[in-house]
Amino acid sequence: MTTAVGTLPGTTAATLESADPKPIIEPRSEFDIDISGTVGKPFVDNPKMQSRNCNVFYDDKQAIFDVDLDIGKNEIIALIGPSGCGKSTYLRVFNRMNDTIPICRVTGEHTLDGQDIYAKDQDPVLLRARVGMVFQKPNPFPKSIYDNVAYGARLHGLASNRSELDDLVEASLIKAGLFSEVKDDLQKPGTGLSGGQQQRLCIARAIAVDPEVILMDEPTSALDPIATAVIEELMDDLKTNYTIAIVTHSMQQAARVSQRTAYFHLGKLVEVNDTNQVFTNPEHKLTENYITGRFG
Ligand SMILES: Nc1ncnc2c1ncn2[C@@H]1O[C@H](COP(=O)(O)OP(=O)(O)OP(=O)(O)O)[C@@H](O)[C@H]1O
Ligand SMILES: [Mg+2]
Fold first, then answer.
1. Is the Cβ atom of 82 under 6 angstroms away from ligand 1?
2. If 92 and its partner were Cys, which of 16, 20, 97, 191 is the partner (CB 3.0–4.6 Å)?
3. Which ligand is nearest to the CA of 64?
4. What's the pLDDT tens digit per position in 167-177?
């Protein structure tokens, strides 16, 4: 990483030797800062999910480097960092969504309640019922609003009759803050809703199967402040029973909703600490640079 210092445009070794060395030393870039390990508290006493020696590759390009992290029971952990640093890639490790990308390869040890989620006999579909996901871009199925929410419950046999299913659909839509807007249109297509409504529909769909962990990848980036507040309140309610990992570009959101924050940089986990500490007294220079808007 230190090689970046010697590559100022238009310079050669000879001109660098004779020139004033100040310009190549003084403007220290992020590449000069050590990111060989993670500082802070990546481990917790009461983990729900654990990740050890995690490396992720897209073909021969490495996107995640040697990450160790626990996600605690009933906590909300925020994953933050500059665009392209690997937040989405790392989030997808926890429910094996990277399996759906043919060129993607994940190594390391990953557990849910101590059980290997990459074990040969682990069915990824069942894993994803326990570790649900909400994506940045809402992706409702081409089905009715009702059937979108009922989909997972039907797949996993969670309701024994139509009335139970109706109750489950309604309760999930209420929790996602969407019910009052769609209660008379449950048979209309989910894809006909606005972007923000579609996102809340996807959240309703995710929570309808009663997952233990919910992975959220920038879930409110398409929402207005009111819908965002609804989702953030929902997250706060959900953490009583569930564990949530959220990727966000909004530091205000990370500060509002999470108890721990993990800062990623160029595929490495630089710092994990209590959210309050990360935003008021970060341990690592790169975290400080990011939260003060110096880069990223
Ligand atoms: N499907 C893919 N195929 C090849 N490379 C990928 C793929 N998805 C991500 N990458 C690469 O992996 C790295 C990490 O990408 P990732 O999407 O995880 O970053 P991110 O932190 O979520 O970024 P953003 O904040 O922009 O969403 C990037 O270099 C990206 O180009
Ligand atoms: Mg992303």
1. no
2. 97
3. 1
4. 999 999 998 88
